[in-house]
## 1
Amino acid sequence: MNWTPASALLMLPMAALVAPTLAHARINIGTEEAQQRLFPGQKFTPSPVFLTEVQRDKMRELSSVREPFKSERVWRSANGGWFIIDEVLGKHEMVKYALAILPNGSIKGIEVMEYVESYGYEVADDAWRQQFVGKTIDAPLKLKQDIQNLSGATLSCKHLTDGVKRLMVMYELALKNAK
Amino acid sequence: MLSRPLRLAALLAPLLSLSWLPANAGEGTFGWVYTLDLQPKGTLEFEQRLQVNQGQARGHYDLWQARTELEYGVSEDFQVAGYLNTSRVSANQNYGDGSTSGWLVPSSAGSSPYSRTRLDGVSLEGIWRFTNPVIDPVGVGFYLEATTGAVKDELESRLLLQSNFLDDRLVVAANLQLSAEKVKFNAPDIGKESMADLLLGVSYRVANNWTAGMEYRFHNDFEGYAFNKQTQRAHFIGPNMHYATKDWWVTAAWRYQLKGQSQCWAPGEAECSNGRVWDSHSRNEVMFKFGRPL
């Protein structure tokens, strides 16, 4: 048999033979559900934020997150808190999460909204998310410093931690003094 | 002699026998370069590899090598794996002197057509990760694999290096590979050989689920277990593509032996012609990998 690219393609059915798999877990939580988990009973008002290039550069510099932030994903709760949705890189897909900030600037909680990976679903467990509660912009918010890693989810833990840091920087720069 | 479909089925039998398993594994982003992406602690993955080497000096030479693997994460930074190795070789007057030769072709083949499908043997490997490239500037690890069987006994070691950039979208990896092997397929003649290779790879996440990259191999073969006398030197380069979801992943890679960059010394000139080296090597080498977390 002479080698041709087409002959290599003959092996692709091999993958098809074994492709059917057991469905693994996935996390998929809507915006309203995440809002009620983080601020139970509160009402929310969409509050898109305008970010200057200088502010975006600062967010990137202090968090190292390069993914663009979608500035329409910001809500204000009736009690003066903030609810923000963001996305960071997961192993294969984007990890969507929400951050709740109290009126005093401390983290009320985070919620993992979409997670579709082979491993690392423990990032959605209370035990890991609780590490963020109460932290402010003054906290390092750095994996393996004030946030502990999870075996098998290092990349997701790192990016989620960096993502929260980015949103806290944004709060400090653009939301803290908003009317 | 088995028909071609039956020969293919025999080669893939280990894969088919395990296809009922619900699968997950340390994901193989590259075709040949190893990374420090290990199995999480307590998890198991099934992986099937198929490498196809085709084209030597003349005539025809097809070498199909399949490896069916189970990987297990012992701890956060240590994984073990076991392989079942099978092969299919088909050759006819593939060396420049008109002989039928090369890897898995016994010298008794002379200049006649030769083909054989067989169970090569089994391998066990361990990978230790000392620093993690997701957190540390440079990830460092060590790989050790022992193989035994009808074809060869081999001890292979690799120093694994990896750095991630651009939010871990860009992965740069290097392997320094040293191995010693007792070649047995040409019994009663036994070959004592060693190898020193440098593998380099770069891979970029072009979209969610997709990465694409390039791989390079600087290959050096030696007589004797202790790199006593160099017999071959060759360079290979080619692209790779990887697709992964939470339930399975697949990698395809191709590497091409650069012409005019290769050299042969002992044992014979026929192993080197047209500016390339042969033996287990060919002009084109293709790798398919498929993995499923269990």
## 2
Amino acid sequence: MTQYQKPTTLFEILMGGTVLAFLLLLTVGTVIAVGTATSFQQGLNPSDWAAIRFTILQALTSATLSIMIAIPTARALARQQFRGRQIMISLLGAPFILPAIVAVLGIIAVWGRSGLISDGLKALGTEPLNIYGFTGIILAHIFFNLPLATRLILQGWLAIPSEHFRLAAQLGFSTSEINRRLERPMLLSIIPGAFLLIFLLCITSFAVALALGGGPRATTVELAIYQAIRFDFDLSKAATLAIIQFGICTLIALVALKIARPMDFTISLDQPAKRWDGHERHTRTFDKVLLLLVAFFLFAPLISILLKGLQPLLSLPTQVWPALWKSVSIAIPAAVITTTSATALAALIASLSKHTATAVESVGFLTLAASPFVIGTGLFILLNPYFNPFALALPLTITVNVIMSLPFALRIILPAIIRNQNDYGRLGASLGMTGITFFRLAIWPRIKRALGFATGLSAALSMGDLGVVTLFAPPDFATLPLTMYRLMAAYQMDAAAGTALLLVATSLALFWIFDRGGRSDHFI
Amino acid sequence: MKTLLLAAGLTAMTTLAHAQDKPVLTVYTYDSFVTDWGPGPAIEKAFETTCDCDLQLVAAGDGASLLSRIQLEGARSDADIVLGLDTNLTARAKATGLFATLSTSPNGLDLPVEWNDDTFAPYDWGYFAFIYDNTKLEKVPGSFQELIDSHKNLKIIIQDPRSSTPGLGLLMWVKTAYPNTADQIWKALAPRILTVTKGWSEAYGMFLEGEADMVLSYTTSPAYHIIAEEDATKSAASFSEGHYLQIEVAGKLKSADQPELADKFLDFMTSNEFQSIIPTTNWMYPAKFPQEGLPKGFETLITPVDSLIASAKDAEKIRDTALSEWLTALSQ
């Protein structure tokens, strides 16, 4: 089936163009602001190059392994029915939104020298585990990103029309034939984007990589940027490193988007997927064992966070509640704006020719490779001469959160929009359906699952964000993550654990409400 | 002439506008100073009753990032005072040319070393030290050498000098204790180091989880556990090489629009009121001990035989060498 190429409307250009301009301003614009703020001081030294090499190596490894585990996990979730499946899918959002420090403490509660597994090993008389080093970094990055990859790939599985599965069952396809005819083409369209997303997430990792990486061997570009800004006050070097980070991002983005093949399934009746395959005994056993392992891997650290935070949760310091309110009042508008912007950008991309579309889509990923420190510092340099930075704390926090969660929302919404356009664009055009009517009848019902997922994810991400804009926070501007860090800095580790639990619970609740809302009449 | 009149008029208007409100003194400091668990709120209250002004404490980053912030803002900064730099940074801070000299130098200080800086006034101090759980660790190392020679399973967590103030403190500690062999000390220490964290909170949190036997912090850290939690299980290991001293200071910016109020605050900083708030909120030694003495619990802390400290000038000179030695030794 050839793709339907819809003409670009003025509305799409205006809406998508505005989003694009904002993206460029906050990524490239801030780098230029930082780079030109001071005169050139010193170039890159060997340790910076080591950091660049290390960053790419760990990100490639983390992304590859996350995807490799996510594919069978998503397949198992797509084809097996079991009690707790819904809950498992919902909880998949949790690790991804944990603040770095909480995730590190959760991971070491299981994998650390005094963690669950080491305790077991010690009881058996063997040496405790030592994950610190490359293993620790990869472990943490898989913990963060495997759930996201699984969710993205699961979306792809659910996008295969159920009629195809029915036909396959009628034709007596085996599991491997279904894999070749239906699943592989779908994976080819989903995997490159998911890989890119995770690769970029790992590129900007810093606190986690350092803490579990065991020392300065685990220096990432992000740490080098932080050092250049904070320690050496060498802004031009920070800008150089930021540009290198963008370069890596663009390169990988172009490769990934080039590999990606559009999904080429025929139009369906949008029935909930029912599966006739995957019932062979060994397949079922494999799926179940895999899901159990993944569930342990992802949820054991979460349970440790839950157990540690439960007691202090009942006696949290009063400062926590206004902070909770502040965070929610940032997260919800940020999430709604993110989804709207991502939809606008996706509509623009869907109407462009392949080459232009790839270029625009790459810009949509750019913010992931952007260093939060560079964005924060750049914005500060741009705004400080004209505005009192404190007066802008709220709008800036929301803006930056929108920009930061946009790549995820775009990744989720774009495939849905393109698929819908391929399926119904022609029909809509031949019926003369345009604008709001077409959106309401043809687009909305078929993208709202993606919109719900995207909004939920953005809300959760904005909740957990410590804020690029700590530079802008006035004295009384305390978000929940910030309050958690402050409690820790004041030795109050228990209260911090309670706050962390509150943060995770609220983020999950927001994620669940939107995600659930999006699939209210579907059966995934 | 017209412009002059206009300027005069505008000046009069701004003066009037200011007269209606209380003058605002803006102090940039680090996050944990400002929070409800830090000294900020009590100090704000105490100072405002004496000054008839509005004291605004602004969290603007810790240690080196506080200085970066001021450099970013330059002469345009709203800040009158920067509070929270330490002696490892004062030379760099002075070199920016943004700080004014002190109008009165503080006297009667209870610092372990003599103080003669004309730009910065100290408000508290502490020694870096390794903290351990005295119910778990049996053979406590008494020096860097003993730490190196200790059991292979004894692990410490330290902070990265590039992103953390205590991390930089340890760098200077080793460098002042072993000026010529610091690189070898680091190389020998490497197997003891479980990991390096971005900041103090991660490291201390991981230590409390039982990940490592010791963590880099301050000799005063056990005071928190004793006083606030009635928990006597945390102790600081006393090292025979001496302990590196951190002196936290504040300074007035040349661009301050409330220079007199700023002077008043810097004087207030060494007053009994300010100083008696410090021990149990910032968990450091006050620069001038309060008249009623230190809070109960502080007497149990270790007192290092030798105080190590690099002068502001030396600190600036040896910093980069010390950092590259550290990086080389730990990256192998």
